[in-house]
Specification:
single chain, alpha+beta, Alpha-Beta Plaits, 10-stranded mixed β-sheet
């Protein structure tokens, strides 16, 4: 199952009693549509307020189920901000989480004098000039395998903090004229720690504002404490952009 969702007003992927979540909404829809909710395995567990351009979920369904009809039923039963874009058959042992080679996130900043109304829910407005060249220099240092302890909450279920970042860079968004001054950080890694992308963006914005030097990134990537990295960027600018799988397991 390939999903897109607007994270505004949602409390993330994982179901929580009494709160609107992506997983909870899908389970409710499936129970109505087919009488039960199969276990859902998701490529990346997004946090509250985070959006997804491409989220991938694996689930075991009875063979009689017609995927296109079920996708239409789920879309009719879930909140407007959650959409099943595609539901298709995969290998019997396909696991959306385990089989993913990498995940790609994009984070959007608005540095223009005015935030366009259609961008406002999906970017972080940062006032004042930004040294984007310094931010790009910092992003390049993130590539490779590092200890990201400084970029995840101190209280965590993680026990291993090294991650391999395949690519990380800042670019001016290529959208139509881009008078709004929209910039994005794109980062691809095998797996991510909780809040890792938002913490990285927060540190890089402080570099762009001249509050930190580019050289601070090296020590932060060597196992520094969370307090050394500063505040995280807000959730609304973050999108799970894509998930990569081996060719033989494309969904």
């Amino acid at each position: 199952m390939e999903l897109q969702y607007d994270g505004t007003g949602l409390h993330g992927w994982a179901k929580q009693d009494g709160l609107a979540t992506v997983e909870g909404s899908l389970e409710t829809a499936l129970r109505v549509a087919i009488g039960h909710s199969p276990g859902l395995r998701v490529a990346g567990r997004t946090d509250a307020g985070v959006h997804a351009r491409r989220q991938v979920v694996s689930l075991a369904l009875p063979g009689r189920i017609e995927p296109r009809r079920l996708a239409a039923s789920i879309n009719a039963l879930t909140p407007q901000g959650i959409s099943v874009m595609r539901l298709s058959r995969a290998a019997p042992d396909f696991d959306a989480r385990r089989d993913a080679l990498s995940r790609t996130y994009r984070y959007f900043l608005c540095v223009g004098p005015v935030v366009p109304p259609f961008w406002a829910p999906y970017c972080w407005r940062v006032s004042g000039p930004l040294n984007t060249a310094a931010m790009q220099e910092a992003a390049l240092l993130v590539r490779g395998r590092h200890d990201f302890t400084a970029f995840t909450p101190t209280i965590t279920k993680h026990t291993f903090f090294q991650r391999r970042v395949v690519d990380c860079s800042w670019k001016r968004d290529s959208g139509r004229g881009n008078q709004a001054g929209i910039w994005r950080m794109e980062i691809e890694a095998e797996t991510f720690l909780r809040h890792m992308v938002r913490a990285l963006v927060g540190a890089m914005v402080e570099i762009g504002q001249g509050k930190r030097e580019v050289g601070c990134i090296g020590p932060l990537l060597a196992g520094a404490s969370r307090s050394d990295a500063g505040r995280s960027a807000p959730a609304q600018g973050l999108f799970l952009w894509d998930v990569k799988y081996p060719p033989r397991r494309k969904t």
